[in-house]
Write a structure and sequence with these properties.
- The protein is α+β, with helices and mostly antiparallel strands.
- It folds into 2 domains: 237 residues, FAD/NAD(P)-binding domain, CATH 3.50.50.60; 154 residues, D-Amino Acid Oxidase, Chain A, domain 2.
- 27% of the residues lie in helices and 25% in strands.
- It contains 9 helices and 20 strands.
- Strands 1, 2, 9, 10, 11, 12, 19 and 20 form an 8-stranded mixed β-sheet that branches. Strands 13, 15, 16, 17 and 18 form a 5-stranded antiparallel β-sheet that branches. Strands 6-7-5-14 form a 4-stranded mixed β-sheet.
- It is elongated.
Length: 395
């Protein structure tokens, strides 16, 4: 049976980022790192089926992990994309109120915009309020009453991002094993024995970054089912009419109340020049249900035609969908990322509920996990680690 120091379960953007971070830190010993992935390639699920937006964290509660790690991770991701020549669109984000909302709850939307402005102030996110004329200068075809502009937001090629992280991890000595779905985890006194569909291996430390299946993996490692993921599907339509696909050049989001699930159907340009609409938020029973009962394009039109009257249903073509690993919270508030050391010796770190802004936060999450006290005690960092200011949730 092969032995490793660290076994990471899941080769999505977070698993690859953690593997890279571990491989690049200087420890007292050279770590043997293995990443187990059920699919044939890295980033096959949530990591590849999203908007590619590097969020600022403005939509999240200022004191949450989502807010802090999105803010930190997005800055790191932009720097990383430039350094690794990953396609990047520096579009900025507009969060807008449509003129139609004058008749349909303007006060509610203004309150939402003010709340986001307050979030930005608390989290020190650079934003500015823009008037209708200012918005017309930026986006001549956008019909909006006013909005908040976050100039630092960018869109990354998420697939290229994942594979660059994987390549960096491999160059640092990490080993990736694909087609290795985990079927059992047996805790031992000083390690974990992990069984996959193909082999068994031993690891001194286990990091669960299994995305949609992180709750199932956590349950394999401990008898109690501590985490439950309630999958949410987000669907996308593409604007395919050649004369209209360049009418909106920036990310344009609606202003939504704080209890909303997701950030709202928005205009989603990509580095390759495509323009998408989405995503919505649809609860699904299966973590692999990407296509049943597709939301009709009229729903997307209703959400965004008020911002772009020239848009018609015939301009849209179904593109794809993704599923988010959403964790429900009993008090009705928005859920936060869960990064928990559920066993300190041997270390078991569960990374659960990494939905949006998970792509943005990936590099921040990686540093946060590696700074977990029980992991640092186990392997003894020898110094020279990147400077970070994480307050680690270690429980």
């Amino acid at each position: 049976m092969q032995s490793y120091d660290v076994c990471i379960i899941g080769a999505g953007v977070v698993g690859c980022a953690i593997a890279r971070e571990l491989a690049q830190r200087r420890w007292d010993q050279s770590l043997r790192i293995v990443v187990l992935e059920a699919h044939e390639r890295a980033g096959e699920e949530t990591s590849a089926r999203n908007s590619g937006v590097l969020h600022s964290g403005i939509h999240e509660h200022p004191g949450s992990l989502k807010s802090r790690l999105a803010r930190e991770g997005s800055v790191l991701a932009v720097e990383y994309a430039v350094r690794r020549r990953i396609p990047l669109l520096r579009t900025g984000m507009v969060i807008a109120i449509a003129w139609d909302d004058l008749r349909q709850g303007l006060w509610r939307d203004l309150s939402s915009l003010w709340r986001l402005r307050l979030n930005a102030w608390k989290a020190q996110i650079p934003v500015r309020i823009v008037s209708p004329s200012g918005l017309r200068t930026m986006e001549p075809h956008l019909r909006a009453l006013c909005g908040i502009v976050i100039p630092t937001v960018a869109v990354i090629d998420s697939g290229a991002f994942v594979h660059a992280l994987k390549a960096d991890a491999e160059s640092g000595g990490a080993r990736f094993l694909f087609h290795n779905r985990v079927t059992a985890i047996e805790p031992r006194t000083d390690s974990y024995v992990v069984t996959t569909e193909r082999q068994r291996l031993r690891a001194a430390c286990l990091i669960n970054a299994a995305g949609l299946h992180a709750d199932e993996v956590a349950a394999l490692a401990a008898p109690a089912r501590k985490y439950v993921i309630s999958p949410l599907r987000g669907e996308y339509y593409e604007v395919v009419t050649e004369s209209k696909k360049h009418l909106i050049r920036r990310l344009v989001y609606p202003a939504l109340p704080p209890q909303s699930v997701g950030k709202g159907i928005h205009f989603s340009p990509r580095p390759n020049g495509q323009l998408f609409l989405g995503p919505n938020s649809v609860p699904v029973d299966s973590k692999t249900d990407y296509t049943s009962r597709k939301t009709p394009p009229g729903t997307f039109m209703q959400a965004l035609q008020k911002f772009l009257p020239a848009l018609e249903e015939r301009d849209l073509l179904w593109a794809y969908s993704g599923i988010r690993p959403h964790v429900k919270v009993s008090n009705g508030e928005k859920s936060d990322f869960i990064i928990a050391a559920d066993c300190e010796d041997p270390p078991l770190i569960n990374v659960v509920g990494i939905e949006s802004p998970g792509l943005s936060a990936a590099l921040g999450i990686a540093g946060h996990v590696v700074e977990t006290p029980c992991l640092r005690r186990r392997f003894h960092m020898s110094g020279g680690a990147p400077s970070r200011s994480h307050a680690v949730l270690d429980r």
